[in-house]
Write a structure and sequence with these properties.
The chain is built from 24 helices and 23 strands. The protein is α/β, with parallel strands linked by helices and 651 residues long. The strands form 6 sheets. It has a 10-stranded mixed β-sheet with strand order 3-22-19-18-5-13-14-17-15-16. The chain has a 5-stranded antiparallel β-sheet with strand order 10-9-8-7-11. A two-stranded antiparallel sheet has the order 1-2. Helix 2 crosses helix 20 and helix 8 packs antiparallel against helix 10. The N terminus is likely disordered.
Length: 651
């Protein structure tokens, strides 16, 4: 029965004209049917092959001849009760996959000067260069036939020439200093629980258990309602939870779409962006207390609003970062919480040897920065005497602690203080005026008196580095807002975003490529069915077609088949979605669009990678290039299964 359904869809799609993606239908049938029954899958494929061979003999993109035109059509049917924000009505599809703009296989064969060239092989690449009259060195022949992609690669959103970068700056926490999870978070979680108990929260709070795997970055916390949201690039809420309980599609739309007279901005004070891994602790405590409050387990919580609960959590967690609950424990046993990376010193020394300045710009204060960086530099916990020598400072031209980002990047009136590395004491400095008063080479003279500072602002930093243009600075950090967005949008600094989660995302994506391809081919098939229906409607509307009743039956069949494909898509989407995270799905994706997180990474991070030391792997003169972007019409035309029709040909 399943096989007949797939074959029937293919037949309907080919009734008026041959469909350019029949090979796609065959791949879909093999993939889907094999999941339920290998015998059904093979039988479906054989039947489709026989149907295909009895038609006009059109060849798909892998055959060599161009396939018949594939036109682009909008949705065929609409329902008045749907919100204008809706992309699709089934919740499973809404919460999962984004459409990829380009199929890498689509252009493996190139038709040039009357010759078909398979550019995916070394021989084909050589033929392409010959056809283009481009003569290169023999090193091109040494390139591998298959490009290797690794989680240690540096990925590019905006072209960047490293030889034009005069200074590279680094955040410390979750950038140069990676943390053991969940051990490091547990310090803040346990400390905040104890502080909440002292504020009058019930003793049951002390029994709370931390689970960092529930959360992903890029979510938004609605502190007023106690909800956690994942939104797409258009600010439409795709997934929502109240505490740990999923909110239904209807309720989600009622709260965040239909009750607004204008599109929600999610920038109000009651919305908090989860842009850093530190916020997982806040989120988990908040969800647990929401659950306790909703269950009526505490009279104390009955008199607290969700927003008040969140603010209490924020104060307690923030205090843990200031009063020694975290830093004292890390200082006692740094090996339990910090991750050593042999590439750090190689990277920093490599930059300085190539003439690029290096600076450290962190919100952590001197005492904790000293502890963490000494451990990373020596690879072990050191004694007090070695600690005070601070040999790690030789890796940097400038160190700024307690920087108070993002204000450091936006407020030109913040004061600068010198730090004495020996005892951590602070001294006032006139900053810009003092540099100017020192005359020629004032910045170098100023730093010769000490290169460790607290506070200040970007004006001080650029003056001390003797850099005028923001585009000559590359700043590397893990905080999407404080490190990446503000430095890029406010100052024009080039940015590199650090994502420790990237290896897991890439690994899962690679494992699910076949499933993703099946989903995308089904989406294309739905589009072609809609296009076929549009053609039938045009015939009916002209009044020249005698068998209107028969055409209407075909339209009904198309609607029925469209529903079947949609149902199957929802099932496959849920499987794909859950493979990344069972609650929130793929980090960069919301519905069929970029997630808010993915949108900001794409627009504000010139580069992104899994860890800072990956920047030490490429050549110092490396030019990072983008992979290219296509709008939907170009993405469709890029495919070998698509032909372009002028307006008059479509009539």
């Amino acid at each position: 029965m399943q096989a007949r359904t797939i074959i029937f869809v293919a037949l309907v799609a080919h009734e008026l004209r041959p469909c350019s993606s029949l090979s796609s239908v065959m791949r879909i049938s093999r993939h889907i049917m094999a999941r339920s029954s290998p015998s059904i899958g093979s039988r479906a494929s054989r039947n489709i092959h026989s149907v295909h061979s009895s038609r006009r003999g059109f060849l798909t993109r892998r055959g060599g001849n161009r396939a018949p035109p594939r036109r682009i059509a909008g949705p065929m049917f609409s329902a008045s009760e749907l919100s204008s924000y809706d992309v699709d009505t089934d919740e499973g599809a809404e919460q999962s996959l984004a459409q990829s703009p380009v199929n890498d296989d689509a252009k493996s064969s190139i038709y040039l000067n009357g010759n078909t060239i398979d550019a995916s092989t070394p021989e084909g690449r050589a033929n392409l260069l010959s056809e283009l009259n481009l003569h290169l060195s023999t090193t091109v022949a040494s390139l591998s036939e298959h490009r290797t992609v690794s989680s240690t690669d540096v990925f590019c959103n905006r072209e960047l020439r490293m030889d034009n970068i005069r200074a590279v700056g680094f955040d410390m926490d979750y950038t140069l200093a990676q943390y053991q999870q969940p051990a490091f978070d547990q310090l803040a979680f346990d400390g905040a629980k104890e502080k909440l108990a002292t504020l009058g929260y019930p003793d049951e709070v002390l029994d709370f258990v931390y689970d960092h795997t529930f959360w992903v970055r890029g979510l938004i916390i609605d502190t007023q309602r106690g909800n956690f949201l994942k939104i797409d690039r258009h600010k439409y809420v795709r997934v929502a939870y109240h505490g740990f309980n999923a909110i239904s599609s209807g309720m989600r739309k009622e709260i965040y779409s239909r009750t607004f007279n204008k599109q929600p901005s999610f920038t109000e004070k009651t919305f908090v962006n989860m842009d850093t891994l530190f916020q997982f602790v806040d989120a988990h405590l908040f969800a647990l207390l929401i659950e306790m409050k909703d269950n009526g387990d505490s009279e104390f919580l009955d008199f607290k609003t969700y927003d008040e609960i969140y603010r209490d959590i924020r104060r307690c967690v923030d205090l843990c970062h200031r009063d020694g609950v975290i830093k004292d424990e890390v200082a006692r046993d740094p090996s339990k919480y910090l991750v050593l990376d042999d590439g750090m010193m190689k990277m920093l020394n490599g930059f300085r040897e190539s003439g690029t300045k290096c600076f450290l710009l962190t919100n952590s204060f001197w005492e904790y920065t000293q502890t963490a960086m000494n451990y990373l530099y020596h690879g072990k916990k050191v004694d007090d005497e070695t600690l005070r020598r601070n040999e790690w400072l030789e890796l940097f031209d400038l160190v700024v602690v307690g920087s108070c980002k993002p204000a450091y990047l936006t407020d030109p009136y913040l004061s600068l203080f010198r730090v004495d590395p020996g005892d951590g004491s602070l001294r006032n400095t006139d900053g810009l005026f003092e540099i100017e008063a020192l005359g020629e080479n004032g910045a170098a003279k100023f730093l010769s008196m000490g290169k460790t500072f607290q506070g200040g602002n970007w004006n001080h930093l650029q003056a001390m580095l003797n850099i005028q243009a923001g585009e000559e600075i590359l700043y590397v950090g893990d905080h999407l807002y404080a490190d990446v967005l503000r430095s890029k949008r406010q100052l024009g600094w080039r940015s590199c975003f650090i994502m420790p989660e990237l290896p897991d995302e890439m690994r899962t994506f690679s494992m699910q490529r076949d499933l993703r391809e099946a989903i995308m081919e089904l989406r294309k098939l739905r589009d072609e069915l809609s296009q076929y229906g549009d053609g039938l409607k045009r015939y009916i509307n002209t009044g020249e077609f005698e068998q209107k009743g028969e055409m209407q039956k075909k339209l009904d069949l198309i609607a029925e088949d469209d529903w079947k494909i949609k149902t199957k898509l929802a099932e496959l989407n849920r499987e794909y979605h859950s493979s990344f995270n069972p609650h929130w799905g793929q980090m960069f994706v919301a519905g069929y669009q970029d997630s808010r997180f993915g949108y900001f990474v794409k627009n504000y991070a010139c580069l992104y990678t899994s860890k800072a030391t990956n920047l030490g792997l490429p050549l110092p003169s490396r030019v990072f290039r983008t992979s290219g972007e296509l709008l939907p019409h170009d993405a469709m035309l890029y495919s070998r299964t698509t032909n372009f029709l002028d307006d008059e040909e479509c009539l």
